[in-house]
């Protein structure tokens, strides 16, 4: 007969935060997840956390990855990295977070469509044209 202590039973449904972020596919490697946590990019219940913090189902997380901010509710725990569909089953993103993230992405795409950087530096003639056009705006 195997005797299971309450601490061992509680530990079975918890996972380290950096492992969970890696398994849920927020970061490619566990080391990147650890760096993000230590850099303050991940909050658990509105507070900063350590990479070794235990994550349980029902907790809320805020994950900042680049320009994207994810507000998620933990639905399950896993210490193994699976397919994307398995990873998405570990959390649910709030509707407000999803809308804000998609809106910000659309704004970034719209801002980037109007500008194309030149392939080379402008030559002497092009510099003079740029300067002449710049003077027109001053009038």
Walk me through the structure.
With 139 residues, the chain is α+β, with helices and mostly antiparallel strands. It has a single domain (1-98), classed as Structural Genomics Hypothetical 15.5 Kd Protein In mrcA-pckA Intergenic Region, Chain A, CATH 3.10.290. Helices cover 45% and strands 18% of the residues. The protein contains six helices and seven strands. The strands form two sheets. The chain has a five-stranded antiparallel β-sheet. The radius of gyration is 23 Å and the shape is elongated.
What does this entry show, briefly?
GO terms for molecular function: DNA binding; ribosomal large subunit binding; single-stranded RNA binding. By secondary structure, the protein is α+β, with helices and mostly antiparallel strands.
Helix proportion range:
40-55%
Helix and strand content put the structural class at alpha+beta
CATH class: Alpha Beta
Rg, rounded, reads 23 Å
Strand order of the largest sheet: 3-2-5-6-7
Q: If helices are DSSP runs of H or I spanning 4 or more residues, what is the number of helices?
A: 6
CATH architecture descriptor text: Roll
CATH superfamily: RNA-binding S4 domain
* CATH fold naming: Structural Genomics Hypothetical 15.5 Kd Protein In mrcA-pckA Intergenic Region, Chain A
Give the low-confidence spans.
4-10
Beta-strand residue fraction: 15-25%
Give the averaged pLDDT, no decimals.
Answer: 84
Query: How many DSSP-defined strands?
Result: 7
């Amino acid at each position: 007969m195997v005797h299971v202590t309450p601490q061992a039973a509680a530990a079975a449904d918890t996972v380290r935060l950096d492992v969970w972020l890696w398994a849920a596919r927020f970061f490619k490697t566990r080391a990147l997840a650890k760096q993000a946590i230590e850099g303050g990019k991940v909050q658990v219940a509105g507070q900063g956390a350590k990479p070794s913090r235990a994550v349980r189902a029902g907790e809320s997380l805020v994950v900042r990855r680049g320009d994207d901010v994810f507000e998620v509710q933990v639905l399950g725990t896993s210490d193994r990295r699976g397919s994307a569909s398995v990873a998405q089953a570990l959390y649910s993103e709030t509707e407000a977070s999803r809308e804000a993230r998609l809106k910000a992405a659309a704004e970034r795409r719209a801002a980037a469509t109007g500008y194309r950087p030149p392939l080379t530096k402008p030559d002497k003639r092009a510099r003079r044209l740029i300067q002449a056009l710049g003077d027109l705006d001053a009038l």
